[in-house]
Amino acid sequence: MIIGSSHGVGGKVETEVLSVVCAQMEPIHADCMEEVNQNIDTVIQFMETGARGFPGYDLFVTPEFAVQGMHPTKRLNVVLTLDSPEVGRLKEACARLRVWGIFSVILKLDGHDSPGNCAIMINDQGEVVHRYVKMNPWIPTERHYPGWECPVTPGPKGSKIATIVCADGDYPEIWREAAYNGANIIVRPTHYMSPWENGWDITNKMGAYCNQCYVVAVNCVGVEAACSAFGKSMIVAPDGNVITQAPAGVPYLVKADLYPGLVDKLHESSVTNTFLYSFRHRGASCRDLGGKGEQRNQYNAYDFGGEGK
Question: Is Hydrolase among the key words of this record (predicted)?
């Protein structure tokens, strides 16, 4: 089987179909819980609209700061925990609609004064099953405490989901980390702004193509105190081709059907242009390595304990 024109998969592949709905929205940059709840009203309205327009969809995704916005001076007024009633409303909506949801939430972190810019995943029973803390905050503007790992969590229909957040995607390493950890879908909630429209397009396609994963990249729209988020949310196939994309500057829903089992098969294959297989088995054709591939890390960029500069 050929995905697009780039990646080949040998043999028979059976996979379930994952239906994903993305909400491109303009959040209120909240300074009080009343405004947070107004954002949650909007999120739930999008979820319900998706259920009517795309009945039976599996996964719903919001952009970065969808719940609390990004107030320039009063963000600490609206920090939540996983037990906050506002998060409880999202749990209830997922359980009621029988969908999984990925939401961007600023959360209090145990043992730290600064909150984390987090992506959480709630299953269709209303349970939080995944939490990711943004590893690469947008310096110097974003003063959230950074995370230290990129977890991959089983989702619906055979999906294995990693989340990264906005500026994370400007670092090639984290895309590879997510794929190396077993992700077949990488979800990227963002508040990506002008004048970086070209960077948005490049990084999402690069993340998908170089790691042979689906990329679900959901962006905000709207003007706030420091910048203008342009939208253009997109879902990208493992060959780097855009499956669907929202327009610029307006609230919007996009939907696509994905095939996560196909990505798993691709990562296991030793045919042409299967990068994750080659990365794990570098030099597999070398007799000195017994056909197993080089197991040591050869890249100085990651040798933090060595003499690399």
Answer: yes
